[in-house]
Structures are given as C-alpha cells and as structure tokens.
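Thread: Newbie trying to understand structure tokens

Hi all, I'm a second-year student working on a class project, and my supervisor (Dr. K.) asked me to get a predicted structure for one chain before our next meeting. I've only ever worked with sequences, so writing a 3D structure as a token string is new to me. If someone could post the tokens and maybe explain what I'm looking at, I'd be very grateful. Here's the chain:
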Amino acid sequence: MRISKLIYAITSLAVAGSATRPAFAAEDEMLVLKPNSAWVLDMGENKCRIARVFGEDDQQTLFYLEQWDPSVVANWTVAGQPLEKYKSWRDTEFRFAPDGAAGEFRFQESTLGDWGNAITQISSLTLSDTNDEDESERDYIADPRGLPSMDAEAGANIESLSLSQRGKPTIVLELGEMKSVMAAMNNCMANLVEHWGFDVEEQRTVQSPPTVTNLNRVTRRIVDYYPHDALRKGAQADFHLRLTVGSDGLIKSCTLLNQTLAPDFDMERHPCTAFERIGEFEPALTANGNPVDSYYTVRIRYVMPE
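---
Reply by user tm_fold:
Sure, no problem. This is what the structure looks like when written as tokens:
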C-alpha cells in the first residue's frame, strides 16, 4: 500500500546532447535512445523511485533510479529489448557522461516484467560521491553520517548513460541534465524518513548510526534459520531490512523493505526474527554524544555455493 499517489512529472529538465563514447564502442555500433516520456517520481511506503522511458516502438527502454534508504548511491535499472543482445557473465561497462561515475561489472541476465531483459546495479552517479555500501571502517568523527543524499549539484554534469559490452551495440540513454532528478530523489527520501516517524533535522545531526554489537551471533542465527526445505532444494532469497533502533539501543521495529524469494521459501523463518530476538545495538549518537532514535538498514542474502 502506498502512503500517497505521489506520482508526478518533472517537466523542466533539458534533453541531453551527445554522449562520450565508451571504450567498447564502434562508430556504427551505437544505439542512441532519446526520451519518450517525462520523469515520473513515485514515493512508496518504503522506497523512492524516479523513472523515464526512452526510445520508440520496439526499442522502448525503461530507466529508473531507486533508493530504500537515504544514501549517496542508488539502485539503477535499465530494461528493454535493446539489451537482448547482451550476454550474461560478460564484462559490461557503464558511464554517466560526460563527467559522472563510470565502472565495469559482470552482467548477470535478469528480466523486468513486460520490459524483458534488464540490468540492475548499485553505484554513485557522480564523481563526487563514493559508494557507501560498506561502512564498517568509516570514521564517523571525521565523516558523520547525517542524512546521506546524492550530490544533486554534481548531477548537472550528467547528461547520458552508456552501456557497452565487447562485440555488442553500445546503448546510450540521453538522460538530460540530472540535477533536478537527483534533487527530487533526495527530497523524496527526506519525506520518507519523516514518514517513518523520525525528525528529519535531528537525523541530519547524527554522527554515528546504530551499531550491531553482536553481528557475528546474529549472522550465525540467520544462517541457522535458513529453511531446511530451501537448503535441500538450493532455494535462494534476498531481503532488505530496516530496523528502528531507539535511543536506549532497543529495537522498536523491523520492516521488510524488499524481498526476492525462491519458490517454497519458508517465510516463517524471517531474518527480522534473528535481530529482534538476539540483536544488541548501540544507539545512534549526535556530534554532542546524545543518543537518538534512528534507522539501521541491512541486506540479507541467502546464496547457495556453486
């Protein structure tokens, strides 16, 4: 159930110019897709998503950014018929051009409903942002958590996204200037944090987030909770959880944000149960050392060894 039908178009964005050519591209192997819709922002119960369609007819391609918690990075997805020629487990390059983030990943084939083949990655969009997925060694005194957000100002340096795989056509989406798009996502996430019951301005003062003090024990319990039938069948699952941790360090709630389940996965053995039964936390602290209520997000993946 959505907290609102907050779906609206951002109509003031300029259409991009030409994109910088990636390393794999050849002059006659580039498919440039222009916008075919306005940007549409969707604020759900637990996430924000902004999407746009590119291309015409059978080349229509969907692009969207998605966030489940405030972050400098975002999940981004490209889905459509042009990806059908891309091969699974091949090195694939992406670039937010002309002056955004770039990288390489191993393409793992997936699909997205009627859109067909899809690529999904988690990364920053700009050069100024760094990936904050692993914060285990972060110095929160020098680099406080606050309320993370994407660098919308640097989004003015992004006009397109290119995907390339050796021997395959390079796909270029003419995104348009991304400053307004990223600012809309940041604003959506701030509104979502408020909807979760937090004071947004107080969250901006958080220096260190809630910390699990017995993570190894919780991890072992989660592994023990892997359903026996799923283990026998090799069934896998992927969960995103958000916990509300009080100023006293006690867990107030655990919410399942997203799940990808194999058939016959036993949901009675929910990862939230392990955190709620044995999880021990230190609360979030402000720069003044005051404990405050805050959120803790974690991704749990049940993956069978090959």
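A couple of things are worth pointing out once you decode it. The first strand starts at residue 7 and ends at 10. The CA atoms of residues 63 and 109 lie 16 Å apart. Feel free to ask follow-ups in this thread.
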